[in-house]
Every structure is written in C-alpha cells, then in structure tokens.
Amino acid sequence: MPIITDRPQPGVTTVTVDEPPVNALTAQGWLDLADAVTTAGTDPSCHVVVLRAEGRGFNAGVDLKEIQRDSGYGALIGANHGCAVAFAAVYDCPVPVIAAVHGFCLGGGVGLVGNADVVVASDDATFGLPEVDRGALGAATHLARLVPQHLMRALYYTASTVDAHQLHHHGSVYAVVPRAELDATALEVAERIAAKDTRVIRAAKQAINGIDPQPVHRSYRFEQGFTFELNLAGVADGARQRFLDGENAR
C-alpha cells in the first residue's frame, strides 16, 4: 500500500508515501494520496496533516513506466488528472499541511510541496523540475511559490535543482535539519499548530487561500495543456523512453 495514514498523536495525522524505489506514483497512486489528505482534513479531530515519505527521497513525480506501457493517452490523462487532484487536495485541505521533505523532491513532489502550508526539510533535500528533459511541462506554478520568478525560470529551463538551504534562504522552507531529526521537527511544528483552536486555524486556512495571488488550480491545468500538446506531437514519448533507457542501463 503506497499511501499510509497514521495518527502519531492527538490532532496530528501523518500521510506517508511509500512506493519503492523512488516514490514515483501511478495515476491511481496520486488519487489515493489525494483521498488520504482530503479524508484527514475533513476529520474534525484532525488539526494538522504531516505529508512525508519513506525511502530514498520524498517524491520522484509521475511513474513514467505506466505512461510508456500505454499505447494511447489514457495513462497520460490519468497522470495529469491524478496530479491535479493531489495538488489540489493539499492546497484545499481544511487544515494546514506540513510537508516533511528528504532526499529528492522532483516533478510532482514540487507540486505537493509548493501547495503545502509549511515545509520542513532535511539537509540532504533537493528540489527541481526535470520536466523539460522528459518532454513535458508542469508545476512551474508550484516552483514559483518556492523561489523568485527569475530563479524559477532558470531552474525550469535547465532542469536544475536547488537544495533545502537555498530554499530556506528564500523563506519557503521553514526549517532545515539533519535527516534523523526531520520527522521529530515536523511533528514539533504540527504539535504547535494542533494545540491551537482548530476552528480558528481552519478559518485561517480559508482566509489565507482566499488572498493568495496565484490561482494555483487554473494555472497548473493551463501548464498541463502544453504537456498534452507535446505528447500529441510525439515529442514527449521519445524523451520519456530515453530517460527510462538510461535508468535501465545503470
């Protein structure tokens, strides 16, 4: 089961992604993640959600193998829809979502983190969008919530990564800690939020989303339209296969 929900302490729900080897999710995996976050947030006894992962890294995005196995566009549409639903679930969750990030955070991982309320990262965490190298586009919406505009563009065009310390410098990562301390730090922040009156915190979440200058749902779906165009043009299929061939050769 790649998505695990737990209640480590009163008022705090953890949603863990555990899909070896790299936490790349299938279309159904993204939907399951969305459902877990939404279910947690609508539980009156839940005051805050911690989104975390097991394994080598936080998230490697979409399972490209699932897309390549499909001779049509069903898997691609499923991945597009699944990502959009999962990112929206984090953003629209009635309670704050804390992302606890370790290792790599790529593609869809940036979509999740960019829509989270608080980001805590280990000192080995890196963030980036390799989309252009895969013949796709997407999650610039969410990367732009983590870094300034021109840095976002440079990272996007070059498919480069930034580390947790750089994001801490820009103010988008709340704390950077040794990996062994990541879960405890995320839970400490969660405890502080959970101790507040959840009625006030839930209202605060709505209020903050309501004044957000970025329409994250619409802008991300706009990006996805170009991904689909690249697939129709035959550009993306070759790029994905070259990546997978390189992975298999290692």
Automatic annotation (TrEMBL):
GO molecular function: delta(3,5)-delta(2,4)-dienoyl-CoA isomerase activity
Domain of life: Bacteria
Pfam family, one: ECH_1
Family label: Belongs to the enoyl-CoA hydratase/isomerase family.
Protein known as: Enoyl-CoA hydratase family protein
